[in-house]
């Protein structure tokens, strides 16, 4: 509820009271004379009264001729008859008196009424804040679409996400000149999905795109679509696109897309939540309804792309995804430099040192850190923010983040570094493996504590047994490294093991590559993991004997053990290299192909 409405309501309440007062004064001071009861009795005896109406407390009547004041109407308050007689005997002039009921009226109903109006307003207000709209907002959905003609943000405000920026530059070019862009028949993506954990700068990036292209920025949050009334969300989507189309070229940004875009039929509202479904359908309709030459580009952000409805990700919709990941150390230095510009710093403040203290921090965490350090310095009464303030602020924030379980402790980071280096080294040392593209110990997604990306140099359609074995050795390289360095096994390798087991099973049962079982296809066309569950209800999967099943298990075991031992042998032989590269990875957090080549080259 806004100020305007509030003002209106108070205005009505004041007017209401005003009328009430006027009426009170009027009734009493009209052409009605208030006469003492004794006078009434006298008039009665004198026969001057034409008619009279009797109520519990009052007598109200008309006189045959007017009183000296000109009134013919009169009112008298009754007095108990016995008592009146007595007073009359002694010729006393007397009148009844009734307490004013004005105060009682207020207490008995006006105050409760005001009270209830108050409660009602409070509830409306709460609904407005909570549900992103509420009762008062129905049909006024325009109020919830945020429009910024100029976001005032450009790419220089977003640091440490260079890859994402590169991908979005194309969209900036397009928005600057939509017609020129389509001249050669090039087609822009309509929708780009920014994927990454909260606080990594997705909103900031979207704003920067609008700022760079100097186009208006329309934004709305997916969670605001989750309304209490069916149809409101869909109306809002329609509204949003209508407004944006009128001002194209423009950017539409939908934050938290997963709140509306959740796959239909998943989650606690499975099958029943019409509202979300309608909203999602409307969104799809709008997406299909505009072509990119209209100059609209839809950006959306999510940190859970895996739960999105597949319909959203189809070609012609959000068919491009841009990863916005947590920054590595270099990225953190750049982000700190952006935010440190606004603070007054002591000479000892070193962004690199701060970045070293903050592995796992997102851009938002770093912005928060700078703010916190500034506050600490202000509270101290100092005139510049010192390194000490930053150290204290880091401690505070880390404590908060650890509760949310997002940061690894130093020992875990070390283990993850050796694990990932294990994958990378085995891949580099085995001939014919896909080259390592990137190694990182920055947690990604749910469960992955680090990652190693290999990129094939060419498309592959055939693989030999040896190549499959090498691939398994690479996958087991992480666990092998932990085994070599720490002599332990950890849960960090669960995903690797699942993939290795799949490969090993395929070698035995699909590709017929073992001597023991021969060139026999035992499992034809293995179904995907999901379909397998369904199939379990129907036909039996296998048509071989239990002995064969035992033999398959034995062969799988043998193949995996061999691959693991191979990886262990390799890493033991290159133990020094493993140490050196893992240390480098710990320090830099991400290594690319060139870094790895340098490190390996030196020791070779
Ligand atoms: P998201 O949308 O990914 O949750 P935001 O874009 O809302 O994250 O980021 C919140 C704030 O954190 C930003 O306003 C900015 O101050 C800071 N921030 C986040 N990422 C960056 C970055 N890459 N560079 C600079 N500042 C950042
Ligand atoms: Zn691994």
Structure in words:
It is a single chain. With 604 residues, this protein is of the alpha/beta class. The protein has helices at residues 3-29, 37-46, 81-89, 102-130, 162-176, 178-182, 202-213, 232-246, 258-261, 274-289, 329-340, 351-357, 363-380, 387-403, 410-429, 465-486, 494-509, 529-535, 546-573, 575-588, 593-603; strands at residues 32-34, 49-54, 58-63, 73-77, 146-148, 191-195, 217-221, 250-255, 296-302, 320-323, 436-440, 451-454, 590-592. The chain has four domains: 3-102, 2-Layer Sandwich (Signal recognition particle alu RNA binding heterodimer, srp9/1); 144-323, 3-Layer(aba) Sandwich (Rossmann fold); 329-399, Orthogonal Bundle (Helicase, Ruva Protein, domain 3); 410-603, Peptidase M41 (Methane Monooxygenase Hydroxylase, Chain G, domain 1). It is built from 21 helices and 13 strands. The strands form three sheets. It has a six-stranded mixed β-sheet with strand order 5-7-8-9-6-10, with helices on both faces. A four-stranded mixed β-sheet has the order 1-4-3-2, sandwiched between helices. A hairpin with a 3-residue loop joins strand 2 (49-54) and strand 3. The protein is elongated, with a radius of gyration of 40 Å. Mean pLDDT is 80; it is low at 129-143, 267-272 and 526-540. The protein binds adenosine-5'-diphosphate and zinc ion. Adenosine-5'-diphosphate binds at residues 158-161, 198-204, 301, 335, 338, 363-364, 367. ATP binds at residues 196-203.
